[in-house]
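Team,

Forwarding the record for the chain on the shared tracking sheet. I've put the sequence and predicted structure together so nobody has to dig through attachments.
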Amino acid sequence: MKFIPSTGLLIFILPAAVFCLERVPQPKSTGTSTSLFNGTDLSGWHRQNEHGQHGDGGHWGVTNDGVLFGEQSPPGSGNGGLLLTDETFSAFELTLKLRPDWGPDSGVFIRADERGGGWQIYVDHHDTGNVGHVRLETRPYSVPFRPWGFSRIDPATPELEMAVDARTKNWPAGVYESTCTQRQWLKAWKPDDWNELRIRCTTGHLPVIETWINDLKVCRFNAATTTHPQFDRDKALKAVGRTGSIGLQVHGGKNWKSGDRVYWSDLRIRRID
């Protein structure tokens, strides 16, 4: 690893990406911000219409205090899936608050289809997990763009520590245009509490995706230029459309225990012209 000082900014250059030690303000968008969730019921949302790689959609509801939640259906069964917006979006800025239990594997999907495939923003709140980086996840073709993760030091406490993702060992420079460091992320994230996630998706069929956690710029990912060695742009163009739903994920499989949930609130979106 090489440490390079520069004016007003410290940069760590690693094989996977450029890590910027500054908080980047959220860029401006056009249009009017609108709510995606009314705090009462699931109006404007539906479970995926087709069985996908994680199940038939999971179980979704609203708590008495107006919080949207997702869990496996039935709880702990291994059957998951996506809750999708009825409306579709292409270029936009999305903000939401989330509070995942410890253990569930979840995510926010953008440009998602009715089988539960699309571009995913990780919400993997478990050992060797990640929140805020990008994955392409569809049944015919998937690629993880996860540069590192975190784990729990002691299951009885909320404290997290850095963890290595072995899949990054052969990454060249340029997988991400920028990404925060693990230490920055750990400082910004609040375990077992509410956190704000912001997602900005722009450009054409191959998107530029930017994410923030509690105003920390997590990453900027450019699907048209990424150097990920397993990424095939032609396959990506066939697997994910130019537009699609916003999706909230309950991951399939046995990683979720009975009673595990992910909670969401204050979902708002602003289209970008």
